[in-house]
Amino acid sequence: MLSREEIDIILLSLKVALWSVAISLPLALLLAHGLARYAFPGKSLLDAIVHLPLVLPPVVVGYALLLLLGRRGPLGGLLEDWFGIVVAFRWTGAAVACAVMGLPLMVRAMRLSIEAIDPKLEAAAQTLGAGRLGVFFTVTLPLALPGIITGVLLSFARGLGEFGATITFVSSIPGETQTLPLAIYALTQTPGGDAAALRLCVLSVVLSLAALLLSEVLVRRASRRMLGYDAVGRD
Amino acid sequence: MTLSVAISHAQGGFNLDATFECGGGVTALFGRSGAGKTTLINAIAGLTRPRTGRIIFEGETLFDSARGIDVRTGRRGFGYVFQEGRLFPHLSVRQNLLYSHWFNPALRAGAEFTHIVDLLGIGGLLQRRPAQLSGGEKQRVAIGRALLARPRLLLLDEPLAALDTPRKTEILRYLRTLRDETRIPMIYVSHVVEEVLELADHVVLLSAGHVVASGDVAAVMGRPDLQPYGGFFEGGAVIEAHVEAIDPDDALVTLGFDGGTLTVGNFDAQIGERVRVRIRAREVSVSLAAPEHISIQNILRGEIMALDKPHGSSVTVVISVGAARLRARITRRAARQLALEPGMQVYALVKAVSLDRHGTAA
Predict the structure, then answer these.
(1) Which CATH number covers residue A133?
(2) What is the ipTM of this complex?
């Protein structure tokens, strides 16, 4: 049904999207919690910077990543010298590009759900012996779970569809950086590739739809658990 | 137990400047809304950091702005029962109750779980979620949760305010049991005089961010000069008494106090039970001779201590009956016609007695 190449493209896309989520999740949680709960100088600026990938042309983000993280870029050189990590023109670079592009979506969803938590519950947790980390992991995090799931799946879906930043940063190397949208684009540029492109388009729609449906189901389950409706006879 | 507080704090145009000390038993922080009670109790809990001052508990400095000491809330070892319960919605009742044990494994060894669950009657609720509890049940779980952290001091911020009257009575009963059984010192924030009289041993009266008076409940709550601050009840006396005799035929109870006896309607009393009674100044009349052929049951002989400054057409007469100080509000004309003066022997005619059950059988 699916060709070897198609399976490889899907697996690569999933790998890139999953890693992009893994990279951005801790950072997004930290940013969302900080922006939701603390006042500090430069908060508005930080908020704007987090949102930048949402409003900038993706090509600009990709080019900025290339300048920063390329082998001769200030951060890219450090990464290679110290850790031996090269992201330029590798699938890891594609994951980084997707992480950056998905970060604002993730932070937004998480921040909203953290802001919706009554700070009085966190104060109550403190009176029962919890420190800052304890409060975060036992009260804030579980209560923000619906927003966290939404953020993760939005950013995952964004990663599956990311095009501009990825192609600018890591190019379109089959088997290494050529994710689903990049492969579709390549096929549309190839004479006689229309049919193959269409097949990938359908696959892309199916994958994104599945991610969104899964998000819906998980969020509903999580909030039902949080609010304690579960034992009222619906399950 | 001694808690010594001397703090000042400013918040949005409101200044709190409070100094008081309290010992064991139940101390009420009493005052009208906006008097600074919640800010004060939050400062004790460590949830609000005062601008300056000191908070010392049992010789241990918990907060000292001058020395830069601020022990964090979780390390103060104080339990806190909030007005709205504040149960964690994502945890079951059992998990809520045992929440403190996640952070202090030493608490797990204790056997008090069963005891506290029984005491508060929440054994049947353990598997439920907070969303499935009634207001009274939530508050009982919240009390249990605070107690299971084995607090050195229990802080309660108007724990009855969000409940309807039957639930109030129910929780008040549990709080009374708690006070008598656990012996944990408590600080109880309230603006309701009945709750204070029923539960508290000491009272700290707050008004506009300042401590106006503090001391024994009967002494403070009986002072008419403090009445404008608390808006408690229009001046009167608070008397500690105990049940001396019960007359089931007439459904009457005789209460003994240092100075005489009072007869009140039966209230399923137990012999020896400690009660606190309030006698409003306007419910007391004064007679120079022992009245005869009169329906009033409570006639107490005493000596006039003082006549307060007249207020409008009336004047309040302070009468000592044994150790108790009764107050009678009579007209100025009556005081003049009877030529009342300090030192005179008079009879106080008490028309009504309000009763607050204070203790279990002693």
Answers:
(1) 1.10.3720.10
(2) 0.79
